Amino acid sequence: NFFSHGTDQGDRSLPQGNDESLEIEFPEDVLFPYYGATYSNLYIQTNGLISFNQGWPKPQTKNFLNTFPLNPDLDGDSTDEEAILIAPFWADVDTSNQRGAVHYRQTQGSEEIAHSSNIVRRNFPSFPEFMATWVFIVTWEDVSFYDHDTGSQTDPRNTFQAVLITDGKESFVFFFYDQIVWTSGTSLSGNEVTGLTDTSVHQAIIGFNRGNGYDSFIEGFPQNRLNLPQVSNINEPGSYAYQINKETIVAAGCSQGVANFVTFPAFGSILGGQKVFLYGPCWDGSNTLTCQFWTMNDQLEHLQTVNGTIEDQNTAYCVPNPFFRVGEVEIRVSVDGGNSFTQSGGYRILNLDRVDVSQKVIRGDASDHRWYTAGNDLSITWPEEVFKTTKVDIHVLNYDEEGACLAGRKFLLYGVKLYSDIHPLGYLLEADFQEDPFGWAEKECQAWIEREDAQQDFTKNLESCPCTLEQALADTARFYPDLNCNMFNDNECLLHGDVKHCVISIFPTADNSGSKCCYDAFGNLKYAGDYETGVTTIGSISMRAHIAGSPPYDAAGTVPMLSHAKADLIPYFHCCLLAGNCMKYLHRRPTADCYDYDTPKTAALFGDPHFFTFDGSNFTFNGKGDYTLLRHEKDSNFHLYGRLEVIKASYPPPYNSVGDIGGTGLTTVVMTERGATAISVMISDVTGIDIQRGKYDDSAGTVSEWSPVDFKDQTWLDFDDVGVSINHVEGYSRITSVTVIFRGSRIGVNITRGLNDNSFLAVSPILPPELMRDNTLSGLFGNWNNDTKDDLQNENGYPLDLMDADEEDIFQYASTWKTPSTTIFRTPYPENYKNDSSYTAVLIPPNPSELTSSEQQILTQKCADNGPCRFDYLVTRDRGLAEDTMSEYEAFQWALNSTQNGDVTDNPNNFVGTKITFECSEGLTLTGSVNRVCEKNGMYSGSEGINECIETPCGT
Q1: Per-residue model confidence (pLDDT) at position 497
Q2: Distance from CA of residue 92 to its chain's centroid?
């Protein structure tokens, strides 16, 4: 299994000797992810080590080998060496006097890239499309140990290899062992002839050390290191594989006796039918596998039980039936025919509009009218890798809720299935439809109208649409883009025609209704009443059944997507597409008028932290530590915390004698709410932003059981109480923004990060209008009472008038919001982190005259006269930080301006003299003036009352 090695294969060699070290620089386009960080170089060590960030200190001592994790201060000099290590065989190796060699090479050659990609795919099945971009191979060949008694060519020799593989995002390492006959040198209590020791703690270490003092991984199998060539964690003797880019090391292969497994894929459709692979435990093919699916909320509910399949020792899978619900579920597995369920793993059910196209049947020319009648040639395609056979069965799933008992549904179709989109089954309808589609559809439409008019009016409690596209884009706490019709993808808006963008209300009403708001090319809200006769596409509509459904999804009208299709889409097909009665449909699905739209309120923190409060004040506070940014002490008990860390100098720091710039930046944000999942958002070298979820204990004020939130190909994940969405900049693989929405308080939080490698986080909380003057808001973002004089209070509630305060006053008041404990954060820091007396904040920036001429030019080009930007560049000389600050300032100002409604007396949004003409479609009568003109008094001319188009009474 060894990769080719040696000087004849293009390898270079480490100088021979004892405790040698050599730095290897990577190509400019290569960054290697390891333990949540990325590196542009590494060091190879004689002693069976690969390290990042520095060479290994000398001399080697047995204390270093006694333990993983290593203390960051390795040699006791009060300086953290941060031993960031990969250890394929850490022992006291000595290659002096021709006693072995250490060979290495890095490559991006096509042959080795292909081979490396294949072994990753084979041993990590959850990465079926992995394609390596860089490989590093280091081989310790025939190496001996330190202080052998003879130094002869017949002394014991070991041969092993480490192969590092990455695509820039995921990274893996393979250890290969050919011959292991010694485990220690004499300095580690090894026998001077054999190199063996009776003390197990002095055997060679195989594992990983993060360098922070508490994260590490030691391969404990086999316990006797002499057996390394005979055993494996991937079923190939002498071979071991690990995924190493995340904050925890993941071993490949299977393990005996483990209680938890990993599912792949991690997501699936509400209709099921997909193979869900279970990786981690070692499966016995003689066992009978049974899979149960359970909800993971407080009300545990058994959803279904299906038989599973064991393919081999590493691979088992089960295929779920339709769920008709979304959210997290737990898969419990039995290997004794269902008598006991001792192993479990997580799985997430997605709504149909979020299922990847690779898991769908695609209808050819889906908008073509041939799909509406029988007797036409129709084409469908599907991913060939799902079905290897040339013969497949095609079935039609008809969904109805009339008189249905949703809790007792049974399914006759088992096994792997793919589903198309939802569409009317015109090609299967009875003869009456085929002979007269218009007449048949008109009857169906009229029957729907009669049923609809007999039901309760659902439109009174809808979320009002934002009036403009800018408002809709900025109001991310209440609206999300329609996945089938938005400005960010190439999907054809089949229902809404030539609109530019549509958004959907995030929160269903109490009766599970929702608003869909669409905007034209000019950014104006397109009303349902804007319908033109003869056109089959429509504008903004209300939805009797929200697309997302409503928990617990067990009643008619609450099933995700399917209830919406039945209540809102199928009537559209009958009334608009086929019968030509679209106005009757739209009269019952009107636009949620923006007349009542209330804008949310936002605040911001960015740069060397600059705070902009809800009431419009701003100040700079570059404290160091963990702080309360916002708390809402009411039913929700919402808290938003931030961690500020010292900015590291990229040049000799001119202002701070201890070597740190006197400024800080936001590196971590934690959000909690009573009864809800806690969310942590943290800077990551690998993914840009790292997102984790945890279990919040409201009574103790602590968070535990943190686990990664892995989006894979998704952009939105919906937990029972929290929704999380992410965004990428086009052509940029890292996450650049996160939006978190808490359902209890309806508070949203936007977190962004710039594109520079050293960019910090910026955070903007978004408050719903009902929290204005709530009197329970506090923290560094203020209280939103429309009074700027008390925007900054200390934690005891005493205000500081920012107009009369100096920088020292602001710093002291803001410092009172330091949290008393770090147990709310995922990575607690030592107490001296928050109370480091060596840190001195720069409260007043240097005078620009102290800059060099080139720096003054950068200051002018990047910042002009923008205060926050100039402050950050003057303090740090970091043009990247200045660019980020300027960008975040402009984004915040855009958000502020976008979410404001017009004020006709103080700040007119319409030009005086603007003339508006109203007209109605054929068959409707206009109420109100035909023409109105915007006058100087901020009012429109014409009759009182609003303009509406109403149906013309019979006979008039």
Answers
A1: 77
A2: 43
User: How long is the chain?
Assistant: 956
Is the N-terminal amide bond of 27 cis, ω within 30° of 0? Answer: no
Which tokens sit at 847?
A: 């005078």
Distance between CA atoms of 892 and 802, rounded to whole angstroms? 21
Cα four-point dihedral sign 776, 782, 784, 787? positive
Residues 6 or more apart whose CB falls under 8 angstroms from that of 155 comprise 99, 144, 145, 148, 195
Round the average pLDDT of the chain to a whole number and report it. Answer: 86
- Please return the burial class of 393, using the count of CB atoms within 10 Å of its CB with bins 0-12, 13-18 and 19+: exposed
Beta-sheet pairing, 84-90 with 93-94: unpaired
Nearest one of 94, 82, 73 to 20, comparing CA atoms: 94
Residues 321 and 629: their CA atoms lie apart, in Å, by 45
> Could you tell me the sign of the dihedral formed by the alpha carbons of 889, 895, 901, 904, in that order?
positive
pTM: 0.82
Q: What element of type H or E holds 270?
A: none
Q: Give the three-class secondary structure for 385.
A: coil
**In the predicted model, is pLDDT for residue 584 greater than 50?**
yes
Can you state the angle between helices 853-863 and 867-876, rounded to 10 degrees? 150
Read off the pLDDT of residues 832-870 as tens digits, 9 standing for 90 and up: 444 455 678 888 998 999 889 999 999 999 999 999 999
What confidence tens digit (pLDDT) does each residue in 138-158 have? 999 999 988 776 556 678 999
Q: Are 685 and 247 in contact (CB under 8 A)?
A: no
Torsion of the alpha carbons at 469, 474, 479 and 481, rounded to the nearest 10: 60
pLDDT at res. 405: 52
Question: How many Å apart are CA 509 and CA 542, to the nearest integer?
Answer: 11
Tokens of 219: 């391969």
Percent of the chain with pLDDT over 70: 88
Cβ-contact 820, 828 below 8 angstroms = no
Q: Residues 148-182, buried b or exposed e (16+ Cβ, 10 A)?
A: beeeeeebbbbbbbbbbbbbbebbbbbbbbbbbeb
Mean local confidence (pLDDT), 309-333 = 93
- Structural domains of the chain in order of their starting residue, each with its CATH number: 7-251 (no CATH), 262-350 (2.60.40.10), 429-596 (no CATH), 601-898 (no CATH), 904-956 (2.10.70.10)
* pLDDT band at residue 31 under the 50/70/90 scheme: very high
* Residue tagged 């196209």 (tokens): 357
Q: Are strands 343-350 and 267-269 parallel, antiparallel or unpaired?
A: parallel
The answer to whether 41 and 24 are in contact (CB under 8 A) is: yes
